[in-house]
# Entry
Amino acid sequence: MDESLGQAWDKFKGLLRKTLIHGFDQPTQLTLLFAGLISQSKLMLDASTEGSIKWKTSEEAYELIENMTANDNEAYTVRAHSQKKGILELQSQNALLA
# Structure
Protein backbone atom coordinates (compact mmCIF):
# COMPACT_ATOMS: atom_id res chain seq x y z
CA MET A 1 0.00 0.00 0.00
CA ASP A 2 1.28 3.48 -0.82
CA GLU A 3 0.62 5.21 2.48
CA SER A 4 1.97 8.66 3.15
CA LEU A 5 4.14 9.12 6.20
CA GLY A 6 1.22 10.79 7.97
CA GLN A 7 -1.14 7.91 7.22
CA ALA A 8 1.39 5.29 8.32
CA TRP A 9 2.18 7.20 11.53
CA ASP A 10 -1.50 7.62 12.43
CA LYS A 11 -2.19 3.93 11.79
CA PHE A 12 0.89 2.89 13.78
CA LYS A 13 -0.07 5.05 16.79
CA GLY A 14 -3.60 3.65 16.61
CA LEU A 15 -2.27 0.10 16.76
CA LEU A 16 -0.10 0.97 19.76
CA ARG A 17 -3.12 2.49 21.55
CA LYS A 18 -5.15 -0.67 20.91
CA THR A 19 -2.45 -2.79 22.55
CA LEU A 20 -1.50 -0.72 25.57
CA ILE A 21 0.59 -3.52 27.08
CA HIS A 22 2.69 -4.16 23.98
CA GLY A 23 6.02 -3.99 25.84
CA PHE A 24 7.90 -2.15 23.08
CA ASP A 25 10.13 0.71 24.16
CA GLN A 26 10.25 3.83 21.99
CA PRO A 27 13.40 2.85 20.00
CA THR A 28 11.83 -0.53 19.16
CA GLN A 29 8.57 1.15 18.15
CA LEU A 30 10.43 3.45 15.77
CA THR A 31 12.39 0.53 14.31
CA LEU A 32 9.12 -1.30 13.64
CA LEU A 33 7.63 1.81 12.04
CA PHE A 34 10.65 2.37 9.78
CA ALA A 35 10.56 -1.26 8.65
CA GLY A 36 7.00 -0.80 7.40
CA LEU A 37 7.43 2.53 5.60
CA ILE A 38 7.56 2.86 1.85
CA SER A 39 10.90 3.91 0.38
CA GLN A 40 9.74 7.45 -0.35
CA SER A 41 8.85 8.06 3.30
CA LYS A 42 12.17 6.62 4.48
CA LEU A 43 14.06 8.85 2.05
CA MET A 44 12.05 11.89 3.16
CA LEU A 45 12.87 11.22 6.83
CA ASP A 46 16.56 10.72 6.08
CA ALA A 47 16.68 13.89 3.98
CA SER A 48 15.06 15.90 6.75
CA THR A 49 17.86 14.87 9.11
CA GLU A 50 20.63 15.57 6.57
CA GLY A 51 21.80 12.01 6.97
CA SER A 52 19.88 9.19 8.55
CA ILE A 53 16.97 9.25 10.95
CA LYS A 54 18.69 6.35 12.72
CA TRP A 55 21.38 8.75 13.94
CA LYS A 56 18.80 10.65 15.96
CA THR A 57 17.77 9.71 19.47
CA SER A 58 14.36 8.10 19.70
CA GLU A 59 13.00 11.30 21.27
CA GLU A 60 14.37 13.44 18.41
CA ALA A 61 13.06 11.01 15.78
CA TYR A 62 9.63 10.86 17.42
CA GLU A 63 9.41 14.67 17.56
CA LEU A 64 10.55 15.00 13.95
CA ILE A 65 7.94 12.50 12.76
CA GLU A 66 5.22 14.22 14.80
CA ASN A 67 6.10 17.59 13.25
CA MET A 68 6.36 16.23 9.71
CA THR A 69 3.10 14.31 9.92
CA ALA A 70 1.25 17.27 11.42
CA ASN A 71 2.25 19.30 8.37
CA ASP A 72 1.43 16.39 6.04
CA ASN A 73 -2.02 15.89 7.58
CA GLU A 74 -2.78 19.64 7.45
CA ALA A 75 -1.84 19.78 3.76
CA TYR A 76 -3.94 16.71 3.02
CA THR A 77 -6.96 18.20 4.82
CA VAL A 78 -6.63 21.48 2.92
CA ARG A 79 -6.34 19.67 -0.43
CA ALA A 80 -9.29 17.39 0.36
CA HIS A 81 -11.57 20.28 1.28
CA SER A 82 -10.56 22.48 -1.62
CA GLN A 83 -11.41 19.97 -4.36
CA LYS A 84 -14.93 19.66 -5.72
CA LYS A 85 -16.33 16.28 -6.65
CA GLY A 86 -16.41 15.63 -10.36
CA ILE A 87 -14.52 18.75 -11.29
CA LEU A 88 -10.81 18.82 -11.92
CA GLU A 89 -9.44 22.06 -10.60
CA LEU A 90 -5.86 23.22 -10.84
CA GLN A 91 -4.59 24.76 -7.66
CA SER A 92 -2.32 27.78 -7.99
CA GLN A 93 0.84 25.68 -7.60
CA ASN A 94 -0.22 23.23 -10.27
CA ALA A 95 -1.25 26.07 -12.58
CA LEU A 96 2.18 27.63 -12.28
CA LEU A 97 3.85 24.31 -13.06
CA ALA A 98 1.61 23.76 -16.08
Notes: The mean pLDDT is 79. DSSP finds five helices and no strands in the chain.
